[in-house]
Amino acid sequence: QGQLVDSGGGLVQAGGSLRLSCAASGRTFSSYAMGWFRRSPGKAREFVASISWSGGSTYYTDSVKGRFSISRDNAKNTVYLQMNSLKPEDTAVYYCAAVSTCTYCSGSYYLDYEFDYWGQGTQVTVSS
After folding, report:
1. Are 28 and 75 in contact (CB under 8 A)?
2. What pLDDT is stored for residue 91 in this prediction?
3. Cβ(103)–Cβ(74) under 8 Å?
4. What is the number of helices (H) and of strands (E) in the chain?
5. Above 90 in pLDDT, residue 84?
6. What percent of the chain is modeled with pLDDT above 90?
7. 92-118 burial by CB neighbour count: b if 16+ within 10 A, else e?
8. Pairing between β-strand 18-25 and β-strand 3-7 as defined by DSSP bridges
């Protein structure tokens, strides 16, 4: 039980912004670290950002640092990814994910096998 539903993707011009949302249902994800990954055509899925259960720690892949911001609202069981200054190379399907194997853990998570709940993905297309 429990699922993640990604939303907020779309088509945007380079330099624009989007905010992705990941709504959790069926169980409480507030005690889990959460993350965002993406997969571009012809490429492997890659880590984008993650956030600790409390929101006190965040981690980003180098290519999005300073442009993307991950946050969470545990009262709403929702995680967000604010994406600014978007580039064509950010075009991908974005997936949110959760680490349910450890509750209230403070470690950093960025390897996809550490995440065991996944959303269905939302397409982000950035035109040049």
Report:
1. no
2. 97
3. no
4. 0, 11
5. yes
6. 87
7. bbbbbbbbeeeeeeeeebbeeebbebb
8. antiparallel
Q: Residue 61: CB partners within 8 Å, gap ≥ 6?
A: 46, 47, 48, 49, 110
Beta strands in the chain (DSSP E): 3-7, 10-13, 18-25, 33-39, 46-51, 58-60, 68-73, 78-83, 92-99, 117-118, 122-127
Instruction: Specify whether the CB–CB gap between 88 and 127 falls below 8 A.
Output: yes
Confidence of residue 102 (pLDDT cuts 50, 70, 90): confident
Average pLDDT, integer, range 69-84: 96
Average of per-residue pLDDT values in the chain: 95
In this structure, the strands spanning 18-25 and 33-39 are unpaired
What is the spatial distance between Cα 59 and Cα 65, in angstroms, rounded to a whole number? 9
Measured between its terminal Cα atoms, the distance across the chain in Å is: 41
80 forms beta bridges with 21, 71
- Residue 50 tokens read as 């993650």
Separation between Cα atoms, residue 14 and residue 25, nearest integer Å: 33
What does the block give as tokens for 124? Answer: 């982000």
